[in-house]
Amino acid sequence: MKEGGRKPGALPPCAACKLIRRRCAPDCLFAPYFPADQPHKFASVHKVFGASNVNKMLQELPEEQRSDAVSSMVYEANARMRDPVYGCVGAISCLQQQVAVLQTQLALAQAELVHIRNSSSSTQPQSSSHHHNDTKSSSFFAIDNVTESLWSC
Ligand SMILES: [Zn+2]
Predict the structure, then answer these.
(1) Which of 31, 39, 99, 123 has the most neighbouring CB atoms within 10 Å?
(2) What three-state secondary structure class fits 9?
(3) Backbone angles phi, psi at 77, to 5 degrees
(4) Cα 55 to averaged position of ligand 1 atoms, centre (Å)
(5) How far apart are the CA of 69 and the centre of ligand 1, in A?
(6) 41 occurs within a structural domain
(7) Which of left, alpha, beta for 139 (phi over 0: left; psi -120 to 50: alpha)?
(8) How many domains does the chain have?
(9) Are 17 and 24 in contact (CB under 8 A)?
(10) Interatomic CA distance for residues 6 and 11, integer angstroms
(11) What are the pLDDT digits (tens) for 31-69?
């Protein structure tokens, strides 16, 4: 039975143990996910979830899922600090909104394509130029209005 202490010059304590000022045991649960050279990761997770909750969550998970869980917690903690009210949900709803806008844009573009194909096959492009320009300038499909709101959040 060896004492778990590290020799001087051995690895420094992990970022988690350093922040909560405890001895970093060789079997430290945090050490693989919160290396000493990335102190900000644990700092944000600790601030939002608390070290003991993070510890509890990691303990409940099988080892192969812990890394993903840590990434998720770090992401969520950072989002929560940026946006204390909505956190990740703010980012998710913003992206969902962008998806909806882009799907609308795609549908409009496809509809316009069909419209252009139909009008060019039924009439000569040159002879019907007046009518054609009319359609373009009045923005038959209101794509411009849709684009405006795309990056609003
Ligand atoms: Zn540690």
Answers:
(1) 31
(2) coil
(3) -65, -45
(4) 11
(5) 17
(6) yes
(7) left
(8) 2
(9) yes
(10) 8
(11) 999 999 999 999 999 999 999 999 999 999 999 999 999
CA of 23 to the centre of ligand 1 (A): 7
Distance 18 CA to ligand 1 centre (A): 7
Q: Distance (Å, rounded) from C-alpha 141 to C-alpha 106? A: 11
Q: Cα of 35 to ligand 1 centre, how many Å?
A: 8
The pair of three-digit structure tokens given for residue 22, joined into one six-digit string: 């405890």
122 lies in some domain: yes
Q: Confidence class of residue 120 from pLDDT cuts 50, 70 and 90? A: confident
Residue type, 55: N
Residues 34 and 51 placed together within one structural domain of the fold: yes
33 domain residue, yes or no:
yes
The tokens of 9 are what? 């010059």
